[in-house]
Design a protein that fits this description.
The protein has 7 helices and 5 strands, in the order αβααβαβαβαβα. It is of the alpha/beta class.
């Protein structure tokens, strides 16, 4: 990966580049829900180190002109989400570690939110009280295709009691979202993001 970062930043001017670390299997590994790393419900030996090691070794190799972010979520394969978190505690712990140990500025954090039924559950969002994003912009993955703008507004209101400033985003990117094509998905997301500002 270190070699690829060198090749990438040689081919693309750093000021034109943004790199997002996709941290999904590491989250599931630490939660103890990956059958191939540990018995169900148990954190596999070395799970935290499999996350923390690359954070400390690789991110510092990225030139300062490149924007860098972390996407922390519970995945969407084969269903959404792969595992439903009890709360945002682990994501906040991992985000805090990433910001403190990347060896350079982290520009954004994208943290997955809850399923729609937990939209008004303060306990789910409470760990955001402990988030230390530094200068990173925080995006919460609380835009869900299942309940649209009304659901987004409920989740935003609940999260706002624990984090004053954040943007909104799809739960886990755009790839598995409904819409007849990518442009329609982007238009739908723009509409949701604008509605969240009202």
């Amino acid at each position: 990966m270190a070699r690829e970062l060198t090749r990438l930043t040689a081919a693309i001017p750093p000021a034109d580049l943004a790199i997002q670390w996709d941290v999904c299997y590491e989250v599931l590994d630490i939660e103890g829900v990956l059958a191939w790393t540990a018995p169900r419900g148990e954190t596999a030996p070395g799970a935290w180190e499999r996350f923390a090691g690359p954070v400390g070794r690789l991110t510092r190799l990225i030139p300062a002109d490149v924007l860098v972010g972390y996407h922390l979520c519970y995945g969407t394969f084969p269903e959404w989400p792969m595992y439903e978190a009890r709360d945002m505690g682990l994501l906040v712990r991992m985000a805090n570690y990433a910001v403190a140990n990347s060896g350079r500025m982290v520009d954004w954090l994208h943290l997955a939110g809850p399923r729609y039924l937990r939209s008004e559950d303060d306990r789910f969002f409470q760990a955001l009280d402990s988030l230390e994003p530094g200068d990173a912009r925080v995006y919460l993955g609380i835009v869900l295709p299942v309940d649209g703008i009304p659901g987004l507004r409920r989740r935003k209101a609940t999260a706002s009691r624990h984090l004053a400033d954040f943007g909104v985003a799809m739960y886990c990117g755009f790839g598995r979202q409904p819409g007849k094509d990518g442009m329609q998905t982007m238009r739908d997301h723009r509409q949701a993001a604008l509605a969240a500002r009202e």
